Amino acid sequence: xxxxxxxxxxxxxxxxxxxxxxxxxxxxxxxxxxxxxxxxxxxxxxxxxxxxxxxxxxxxxxxxxxxxxxxxxxxxxxxxxxxxxxxxxxxxxxxxxxxxxxxxxxxxxxxxxxxxxx
Amino acid sequence: xxxxxxxxxxxxxxxxxxxxxxxxxxxxxxxxxxxxxxxxxxxxxxxxxxxxxxxxxxxxxxxxxxxxxxxxxxxxxxxxxxxxxxxxxxxxxxxxxxxxxxxxxxxxxxxxxxxxxxxxxxxxxxxxxxxxxxxxxxxxxxxxxxxxxxxxxxxxxxxxxxxxxxxxxxxxxxxxxxxxxxxxxxxxxxxxxxxxxxxxxxxxxxxxxxxxxxxxxxxxxxxxxxxxxxxxxxxxxxxxxxxxxxxxxxxxxxxxxxxxxxxxxxxxxxxxxxxxxxxxxxxxxxxxxxxxxxxxxxxxxxxxxxxxxxxxxxxxxxxxxxxxxxxxxxxxxxxxxxxxxxxxxxxxxxxxxxxxxxxxxxxxxxxxxxxxxxxxxxxxxxxxxxxxxxxxxxxxxxxxxxxxxxxxxxxxxxxxxxxxxxxxxxxxxxxxxxxxxxxxxxxxxxxxxxxxxxxxxxxxxxxxxxxxxxxxxxxxxxxxxxxxxxxxxxxxxxxxxxxxxxxxxxxxxxxxxxxxxxxxxxxxxxxxxxxxxxxxxxxxxxxxxxxxxxxxxxxxxxxxxxxxxxxxxxxxxxxxxxxxxxxxxxxxxxxxxxxxxxxxxxxxxxxxxxxxxxxxxxxxxxxxxxxxxxxxxxxxxxxxxxxxxxxxxxxxxxxxxxxxx
Lengths: 118, 661
Prior knowledge:
By secondary structure, chain A is α/β, with parallel strands linked by helices.
């Protein structure tokens, strides 16, 4: 079961929202990335069990970061964090190996459900 | 999820996004094709939309949603950036900022009556052909009540089904009521079945499924070697699936039917052991840091006490311990000081927008240049210099930079330059505000001051150029005839002066006709702990911050010359006015000092000019914690505070700025 989690989101607020939920449920947030580049580097360093990946980020977006991680680590578990209205982007992410997704505004139950399915 | 504990973080993040919006729209105003700026605006609007929706601030969400849509089209070259759009975005940012401010002060978005008009105008920016993007997908579509469904099969599929006989299964999959992006869930179900099943048909048709254009349930016709139970498990492995039932598919009604209700097992239920939580950043209130700083200060005082004890009783072992404590205290102080440091960017960021608005209002063209944003300052200092900087920048635009026609007449470029530069020099932070405008005229300043009764004509006659420039800091001084709503009310500059002084900072003004004006502020990097020089004047001991002492020299009494009845000495090839500190402070003469021929002089700066303060003895240097003077002592000129020595003795800290008032 997934235990260690990494959050990649340029919004500190969003990271905090997810982090509080995760910590409350005994997950360990091992790293946080502020954009796709940072996320990729931190993935390499930390090899978390699962990554929550925002879609829209500066420098390197979520889809591109997902592709980069998947290319080097085919077994990576990446869950996309999307907004309403981004169905086609999330669909694209699934085609590129994302294991699931959550939609803002995030709900605790949904986050835990996605994690339990990994 | 509106929740107290999140609100602070929400506001901090919102402010950051607003800053991003402001900065990028300024860039876009200069270059309407700047792709990076367009992207930043899109992302900032998108992020703020999501954050505010999470917090339940729907008015902010709505506004940002529209802005995001517009900039999505800008990104895709469907909408062109023009000055109308830029002005609209400015208005939009202001409105959102006001709402965020209201959230910060009252917890709600406040007055949102102005929103509808802006939203409507944003809507109009969208290309007419483009149907506005829906905020939630896949709510409508062909509902399916289950039971008997007719699969739309082609010949190829029929052939496969005929060949597979009893390995053909029909899976009925029901999504949860609140499932988002059902089309993507379908995709994930297909992924889950990959390699073990072949999906030969679906109801509704595959195209509708992929688009998410169906109700909450769908059917798949699959051929598989695997047991039904295992297939169910695979499908249930996708989130947001409420129910899966699988039966053998035949032309007749299926016989076997199984249902598995969703067994929601939240993760991490059983293992609560040894969970390490890594937290990288936390927010600490400034008051906590203040009290930490105070404690570090008290520690210094306690240590000095220990020091004196050790000296009195000659305990060498104690000395070693004290020296260890000393090192740790210095480290502790450094850490606390470091924790309080914030880049000036935090306040500089709001200025480009302000300067832009100001210039536009007065039909001036201003190129605003900011340098040294990364320089850090103590949080308390930073919080206080915001307003003075606003004033100085307003003055630069308002009084400094001329209108384009006038600049052209003077052979200047029509666009004026206003610069805001921060840099580190020794133990101080230097902030320069400069413009390339018409400069200040010392004669006009003097005339105005005389007219307003602030100085006499005789005083004016004796004034140097620099002293004349400093007149603008006098309360009640204002040179512009017309009082605008942005500057020139004559109350601002003396506030600037008192703020800078309260921070133990100094300021100088340089101005040249038609070249421009530069105001230079020198601010201490930290407020609470300073390196000070201890000295004696007459019978008393005092301290003075080291950063105001330019030099310490010794002079012979016989070197002192009288110029216009004032004591001076030649220092670095020019006349240095001398003042006896004990006379200024009315302190009794210490016995024995009278006969001495050698005297110490502290060379310090006063209103931009060097002067010498004659003292009787230099005692030494030490880190001290400044305690402000309270109550009636607050008004005392000549002293900026006091410090308590380990022995309990109170030493006053001399303030050169107010010594002569």
